[in-house]
Amino acid sequence: MPAHVAIIMDGNGRWAQQRGLPRSEGHHVGNIAAHEMVYGALEIGLRHLTLYAFSTENWKRDTDEITTILEAMQCDLDQGPIRDLDVRQRWLGHPDKLPEELVQALRREERRTRNRTALTLTVCINYGGRDEITRTAAALAQAARAGDIDPHLISEDDFARHLPHPDMPDVDLLWRTGNEQRTSNFLPWHAAYAELHFTSGYWPDVDRRDL
Length: 211
Ligand code: IPE
Ligand code: IPE
Ligand code: MG
Known about the structure:
Number of domains: 1
Radius of gyration: 17 Å
Order of helices and strands: EHHEHEHEHHEE
Structural class: alpha/beta
Bound molecules: 3-methylbut-3-enyl trihydrogen diphosphate, magnesium ion
Strand content: 15-25%
CATH superfamily: Decaprenyl diphosphate synthase-like
Oligomer: single chain
Number of helices: 6
CATH class: Alpha Beta
Strand order of the largest sheet: 3-4-2-1-5-6
């Protein structure tokens, strides 16, 4: 039984295209699939589930599509079905460019659910692995300049301690749907030794049994 499963939820756009629907519809149904994963994780007793919801590269998409994706997140945080489950919700990513209201809601839900214990759900929004590593290196450089750490003695553990969520365990299983075999800047530090699992189906078609 893995302790930490991380998922690249890919294929929403192609799922919609295949049906002659707008991409927004793919994101809408994809959101329901994400809820399914949370129910499934609770059912099997998974401790950590991490979902890639919006990457630093996704800003290159049309404004309308970005708005659809971010609005669905806001709606989930304010009134979604996950809110009352025994789930500690966390956000991994950077506030830059995100709507202020969304950032507030992400921080609010982190505070509100911090003492829950069954599942830690980390949602990656405006997340990029290189961005994370760069910022962590910058934090270490600050610590070295302040004299808190000797730059000659920096270890992997020191690096891990300066990550945004130092207690996040390594990824055991990295699953990507949507028929692409790449990791798209997702969790390079935590997934360095993960099993990789690529499936061909599109994200809106998955349910908890797939997990
Ligand atoms: C994943 O589905 C959702 C996000 C990246 C936000 P896509 O929107 O990438 O769907 P495809 O890959 O275009 O089918
Ligand atoms: C990865 O999917 C990002 C998310 C699922 C949020 P993309 O569809 O954005 O990845 P690329 O661009 O095909 O690598
Ligand atoms: Mg995609």
